[in-house]
């Protein structure tokens, strides 16, 4: 198997040129940190030493380890020349272990107090970039708070927050180009915020009014913007991954200096589309970054019941995709990892998998009560002690780029803008009924015309059950 895992010198040169982090790989058993019997939860495995798992055809430490694991006393001349590479023989019955005691560490740059870890390798950020990152993290946090409250007041029908995952949203967006095409899951509004989607546009979408770009057809938080290269959110899980592979391949064919970026949660990795998307991208060598937000919970299912592998990062290695595990509460680490991943995806024309670890502090959605399946102390620990917004603020303050006055002015301004945007969105009329049947066909087919006829008949029979603010024209 030695030759199968041999790597080219090109990737080694690329690593030296674009990344200051170490590419390595292994497998292990995932820690059962979310056990409800433990009131003070264990943190995700984090270590300042970054390790990447490896993929085919590039020389790395992990590649040498795999060479040793599969080595035998048989000469290469006696190896099987099988499609894909030479395979050496062995006379020993030996199974590859499904796990090991030591897992792949988590790349981080800042400690829990926002201090830079000594000898950390990371991409330098300017004052302007750092302040924008922090300001957008605060904006996202406040937007989630007010929209969540609006839903609880019955003013919008549904909402999902990004509490605990603000750094993943904003830092990854900051490391990308505006030409990169983003395919979100549903907890990435911060990416759209970074790209210029206004608070008024967010409000219009959540209220489903006439000014909503989606014409009120989507559930709240199902954002989309062609202008910002942000593909509209769709509820089915993981369907965006094969689509991302296809989009990335089209970018490759057009020789564009851009990549596709697909986000997914840990629960989504159990879907068939996750595996199809990664395999498709690997085989077609498509420039796409798969970002998995491992937040510990797939609604009420803990990751210990979701998979037995070492998280998600090792699944990239299985498909021949370079992968890294990152502390999702560390904005600098996320920025550095995504920045490097983008350079790799475009220059090497291939996929990269990034697993971020950041606990989902909020409920899965407004339809969920997470206190029914996880202890309050665990939630509070991650909310207070491992808060990504507070951590990054401390680092920005240490650099002398932020003050208490700046904080007060920012939060006051954002709150005023949000309240104004919500009031305007709430007062804006809804799209007319005709929009429900438009924009798909040039000439509506008979079945669609029949559906519209039946709907209007139902409204005429039961006008009291139909929203008064929706025009029937």
Structure commentary:
- It is built from 14 helices and ten strands.
- The chain has helices spanning 9-18, 61-69, 127-152, 166-175, 189-194, 199-207, 240-253, 272-284, 313-318, 331-348, 376-384, 388-398, 404-427, 446-461; strands at 52-53, 80-82, 85-87, 181-183, 260-265, 288-294, 297-298, 301-302, 323-327, 352-357.
- The strands form three sheets. Strands 1-9-10-6-5-4 form a six-stranded mixed sheet, with helices on both faces.
- The chain is globular.
- The chain starts with 8 loop residues before the first helix and ends in a 12-residue tail after the last helix.
In short:
The chain is of the alpha/beta class. It is 38% helix and 8% strand.
What's the SSE blueprint?
Layout: H1 9-18, E1 52-53, H2 61-69, E2 80-82, E3 85-87, H3 127-152, H4 166-175, E4 181-183, H5 189-194, H6 199-207, H7 240-253, E5 260-265, H8 272-284, E6 288-294, E7 297-298, E8 301-302, H9 313-318, E9 323-327, H10 331-348, E10 352-357, H11 376-384, H12 388-398, H13 404-427, H14 446-461
Parallel strand pairs: 4-5, 5-6, 6-10, 9-10
Antiparallel strand pairs: 1-9, 2-3, 7-8
Helix pairs in contact: 1-10, 3-4, 3-12, 3-13, 4-10, 6-13, 7-8
